[in-house]
Amino acid sequence: MKPVIVVGHKNPDTDSICSAICYASLKRKLTGNDYIPCRAGEVNNETQYVLQRFGVEAPQFIASLEPRITDVQYRHVHGISSHISLKRAWEYMRDNDIQTVPVVGDQGQLKGILTLGDVARFYMEDQDANALAEAKTSYRNIVDTLRGELVVGDLNSHFSEGKVVVAAANPDVMEDYIGEHDMVILGNRYESQLCSIEMKAGCIVVCLGSKVSHTIRKLAEEANCAVVASPLDTYACSKLINQAVPVRHVMRIKGLLTFRHDDLVSDVKTAVSKLRIRYFPILDGDGRYMGMISQRNLLDIERQQVILVDHNEKGQAVDGIRSAEVVEVIDHHRIDAVETTNPIYFRNQPLGCTATIIAMMYQENGVEIEPTIAGLLCSAILSDTLMFRSPTCTAVDEHIARMLAKIAGIDIQTHATAMFNAGSRLGDKTPDEIFHIDCKRYQAGDKSLAVAQVTSVSGRELDGLKGKMISYLKDYLPASGLDMLFLMLTNIIDESTELIFAGQGAREIVQAAFGQACQEHSVSLPGVVSRKKQLMTALISAIEAEAEA
After folding, report:
1. Are the CB atoms for 454 and 432 separated by under 8 Å?
2. CA 456 – CA 537 distance, rounded (Å)
3. 400 and 369 in contact (C-beta within 8 Å)?
4. In whole angstroms, what is the distance from residue 182 CA to residue 159 CA?
5. Which residue, of 18, 245, 529, 536, is most buried by count of CB atoms within 10 Å of its CB?
6. Spatial CA neighbour of 279 closest among 110, 67, 86
7. CA trace torsion 225, 226, 231, 236 (10° rounding)
8. In this structure, are residues 287 and 109 in contact, taking their beta carbons and an 8 Å threshold?
9. Residue ranges of the alpha helices (H) in 337-439?
């Protein structure tokens, strides 16, 4: 069973990251199963400070939950060398009950494919007396195929000229059909062996386990003629000899359809849907062979199980969420849930932070909250509630945060100030990085919008951002695919927000939402610090009212 992924929303904030880490830890303790905390975006400065403060690594990044070939239970069929004989390749396929085998090089790179159809086609269509020479067959393969021994010659040399003939006639007749370099299959008749050598044969195969005389050996060595002794009869040798050809002579090397291990399953399904090929090779990032996949493997894929924390909207979820199986949602935002195929555990409470809910779940299940976990959860609450200043903050949030602070051994005022100062270092970031530090997408009626928020304890820093961020929003809007963009520049100390915006109708929506005149691309909102409770509620109501008008 694959591990369950616990992940927050895109452009994660401190709550999203810390809640994923702490809830995965709780689930592991309660179930004994494997739960992996993940993130759907880069870690911002504030969150990075928190993780370093408590000695915790950032969760694993996942760009998409779309299943890839590595998620499929494909067949790990070992590849064969292009030098081995067709006989050995057939035995490998028979013993492993496979009909397709990859041919690989010394470094694991794919060189070709051999199928039962290729083997049958070779015997039915391509087999002739010159096949061994055309394939430059090694004497090692020939000896192995005929179960014999090389009496004269070098196992590592190759039969590369001439045809294969069977010496069934008298020596005086043999002279008419044995050519130079030919391989002659014959019995124990001394005269036939001598005639073949005199006709400059490249190799003689002595059958029936007959002993090769000292004289024939000596003459063969002098004439550079290889001698193979086989226990098989003449008929068996002539029947089996072409099985000695190397795989490279028969394998397919053109038009191979291969896939990379990180290819999306959906793309692979599309590519193979109309093909009648049974197996396809999988390669790693360096082109090395990994295994074989069939169309049936693509149908039997196990969906990735996922727990969503700090969000429940498709627009905020990691890409490919539709391909995964959502099994739980732990959140404190409005409900616009992703679709699920089965009933799930869904916990949504009107609190200031998801971490508050998770801390309560530790208590409800009688699981001790360790100092590190307490530090992460407390940091998330302080971040989401702006150290209890946000109107989303409840008495429960503050009570839980103070309890966690005691366990973690931190002073709330000191720790929160350090967090916010770390998050306020915006001067070295590009406008695009600033906008996506904490950005969420929403759908309100037929309008699609993104609302980002940056917080700072420095009003001067926020004032310096205003002009360049207005320019950025206007430039970024066409490429975003959205109708409107909003950015909250929130001053934690003054408990106020400078809201800047772009998009057709955005100014009118803001004026309707807050009942005050706006500049062309901005408005000052004293007392507004919460995106969820103060800004989005007003914006969505204004958009819906406009749609109904």
Report:
1. no
2. 23
3. no
4. 9
5. 18
6. 110
7. -80
8. yes
9. 354-364, 371-384, 395-408, 412-423, 431-435
